[in-house]
Amino acid sequence: MIIPVVLAGGTGSRLWPLSRQLFPKQFIAPDTQDETQGQTLFQRTLSRLQGMSGLAAPIVICNEEHRFLVAEQLRQLGLAGALILLEPVGRNTAPAVAMAALAADPEATLLVLPADHVIRDQAALQTAIALGQDQAAQGQLVTFGIVPASPETGYGYIQRGPALAPTVFAVQRFVEKPPLAVAQDYLASGDYYWNSGMFLFRADRYLQELQDFAPDMLAVCREAANNIHKDGDFSRIPADSFGRCPAESIDYAVMEKTSRAAVIPLDAQWSDLGSWNSLWETGNRDQNQNVVSGDVCTIATTNSYLRSGSRLVAAIGLKDTIVVETADAVLVADKNHVQSVKQIVQQLEAAGRSESQHHTEVFRPWGSYQSLASGPGFQVKLIKVKPGASLSLQLHHHRAEHWVVLKGEATVTCAERVFTMRHNESTFIPLGSRHRLQNQTSEWVELIEVQTGDYLGEDDIVRFEDVYGRAEG
């Protein structure tokens, strides 16, 4: 039995402004040339395993803030029975996989997969996994080394050692990101692979390696596993114990120290989408070598990535340039400097700006809302409620609201009244009134909400009932 373990806890800051802290890249559907167009990177990670025999329901490890995104995207795939482990704080990959191993059958084989990679050749991946199963059954800790296409300086490398079986090698050593001259030597030797961060091993074998090389980490993880709190569809890892766990990668905690590491070469048109250059490389390029997405016009522009999210983007005379437009931010960068995007995000965070956290459209378990306009004492939002969903029964101390239905049929609770509103009908929610918005139909509901008051923050919510178990927000 193979249990896919999907690591979905990253923030993807190098793909800002498309990727934000509350809506990171793994939950976005990028324009790439692979077999699952239209699906998010997280969904593709699981979809490319379809057709394999002996697969169990997946274990997904994610940030608590992303739990409803994970649940909804699993539902869209039709995957039932997944275990969703919520990390109260990120502690890198070694503790995350330890929590999955402790939750799994000890004899199960864990297939550890980052949630934000592109792999175009699904068949090559499945063949490599099947090859790795035999090695994992023999107690090996298998990693998949990407056959390098260029002397990349942004990846770690794995040097192969003696052959253990056809196309399976012992790991000689792991190497940190090298300078260009060294990376060129690695490529020429044929003995080095890019480190993909994908692994295959038995749960009990991994835990034994942790016991040997990181016993303090394992002890903390066991304590946390013994005190996991079940919350509906989610399993909450306790913060008081897990927060004490050392933050280390699988490579550092285990793979660099064990004598049982094996590497299987993988040539599957792989990318970790670690920068905007990666999206240019994996995208559909036109005759001018541009990747264009959205409403874009170009003149004398070449070798560029141009993405429009909400309005027309016109580019003239650009070369080797990244332009990404969203409703609230525009990124313009030379392709040789895209690794500095993370520094822009750090500046935004230091300034307390919301553009680092979320888009103008903010996703909730019931749907989403988008800020359309705001000023002193007022705010206008577009609210979308998915079929069968319900906002909490709540009140506000500082604002009143006016709702106008644009689409669908909304069921409204206001004080003691429960009534239905349809297209072009409206209602007023007085300050301090208990109210709820529900969609009891099979179609989406869309409405305009006009807020007025002396404070319009999202924390001015007192909840009385909530089907999603939220205390606030």
Secondary-structure class: alpha/beta
| Biggest beta sheet summary | 6 strands, antiparallel
Radius of gyration: 24 Å
What is the average of the pLDDT values?
94
Helix content: 10-25%
How many individual helices? 11
Please mark out the parts with pLDDT under 50 across 5 or more consecutive residues, or reply none: none
Protein traits:
473 residues; alpha/beta; 6-stranded antiparallel β-sheet; 5-stranded mixed barrel; 22% helix
Structure in words:
The protein has 473 residues and is α/β, with parallel strands linked by helices. Helix content is 22%, strand content 34%. The strands form 7 sheets. Strands 20-21-22-29-24-27 form a 6-stranded antiparallel β-sheet, with no helix packed on it. Helix 1 links the parallel strand 1 and strand 2. Helix 3 crosses helix 6, helix 3 crosses helix 7 and helix 6 crosses helix 7. The two termini are 39 Å apart.
Per-chain topology:
Elements: E1 2-8, H1 41-47, E2 59-63, H2 67-77, E3 83-87, H3 93-103, E4 109-114, E5 118-119, H4 122-137, E6 141-146, E7 157-165, E8 168-175, H5 180-189, E9 192-202, H6 203-213, H7 215-225, E10 229-231, E11 234-236, H8 239-242, H9 250-255, E12 261-266, E13 270-271, H10 276-282, E14 291-293, E15 296-299, E16 305-308, E17 313-316, E18 321-325, E19 330-334, H11 341-350, E20 361-364, E21 367-375, E22 378-385, E23 393-395, E24 399-407, E25 410-414, E26 417-421, E27 426-429, E28 435-438, E29 445-453, E30 462-465
Parallel strand pairs: 1-2, 1-4, 2-3, 3-11, 6-12, 14-16, 15-17, 16-18
Antiparallel strand pairs: 4-9, 5-13, 6-9, 7-8, 7-9, 8-12, 10-11, 18-19, 20-21, 21-22, 22-29, 23-30, 24-27, 24-29, 25-26, 25-28
